[in-house]
Amino acid sequence: MGHSGSDANEQFDLARQAMVQQQLRQKGIRDERVLAAMATVPREAFVRPQDKSLAYDDRALPIEWCQTISQPYIVGLMSQWLDVHEQHKVLEIGTGSGYQAAILAKLARHVYTLERLAALSRDARTRLMDLGLTNVTCLVGDGSRGFPSFGPYDRIITTAAAPTVPAALLEQLADAGKLVIPVGSHEEQVLTLVERQASRFIETPGIACRFVPLIGEQAWPETGSASDSTKR
Ligand code: SAH
């Protein structure tokens, strides 16, 4: 028996530390809790087997069903902006691979993550369980309507692009809550922060970004064209 398994793990550990340094710290991600979470969660466990060697590249990668796992910097930026505290209950729309949910699980009390494609949700659930992350609940459904039964949520993050901020998400946001969501066209969106103060919602625009579409009742209709694999 050789040592290839542990050698591979060492390579991934080194690549992960380099990612934190070069793609996150040097590019302005300063939240130490976010940096620590991203320094521990093995991103290689969330990409397709044939892409493991690319897991720490500075880019989004394709996952099953023409969806994508976001670029590490975008995950770091969204997590930092969301300002998650350890007592928070968080709702994520767009489980995808489960990577962003794993990062949030390190930061929050509990994470509910909603995915419209049951097969993706099932695989993400397996990965999260294998990593011993027990404070994540994987749900299947249309996240453009939120998930009222477990709300209100201290934080909501949408990792798919919406034409406008779905009203249901605003309704399910707790007082003093924060929501981070890419809003715009199919081709380009603005990462947007919405802060709730009682019945007021204050929107702050951030950087331009490109996510796969949020498909649902309060978002984009299903079109049948599934050429989104190059997007975040
Ligand atoms: N956060 C993921 C990446 C998300 S890609 C990760 O870390 O890997 C966007 C995901 O949103 C896709 O998996 C897509 O199927 C899902 N999605 C699109 N519309 C949705 C909706 N209305 N409700 C729930 N999930 C949706």
Blueprint (SSEs and pairs):
Elements: H1 4-24, H2 32-40, E1 61-62, E2 68-69, H3 72-82, E3 89-93, H4 99-107, E4 110-115, H5 118-130, E5 136-140, E6 153-158, H6 167-171, E7 173-184, E8 189-197, E9 200-209
Parallel strand pairs: 3-4, 3-6, 4-5, 6-7
Antiparallel strand pairs: 1-2, 7-8, 8-9
Helix pairs in contact: 1-2, 2-4
The chain binds S-adenosyl-L-homocysteine.
S-adenosyl-L-homocysteine is lined by residues 67-70, 93-94, 96-97, 99-100, 114-117, 120, 142-144, 159-160, 212, 214-216, 219.
The global form is globular
CATH fold group of one domain: Rossmann fold
The number of helical runs is 6
Question: How big is the Rg?
Answer: 17 Å
CATH architecture of one domain: 3-Layer(aba) Sandwich
The CATH H-level homologous superfamily of one domain:
Vaccinia Virus protein VP39
| Main sheet makeup | 7 strands, mixed
Instruction: Enumerate the distinct ligands.
Output: S-adenosyl-L-homocysteine
Q: Strand pairing plus helix content: what structural class?
A: alpha/beta
* N-to-C SSE string, H for helix and E for strand: HHEEHEHEHEEHEEE
Strand order of the largest sheet: 5-4-3-6-7-8-9
- Stretches where pLDDT is under 50 for at least 5 consecutive residues are 225-232
Q: How much helix is in the residues?
A: 25-40%
In round numbers, the mean pLDDT is 94
Which CATH first-tier class of one domain would you pick?
Answer: Alpha Beta
Roughly what fraction of the amino acids lie in strands?
15-25%
End-to-end Cα distance, whole Å, is 39 Å
Number of strands: 9
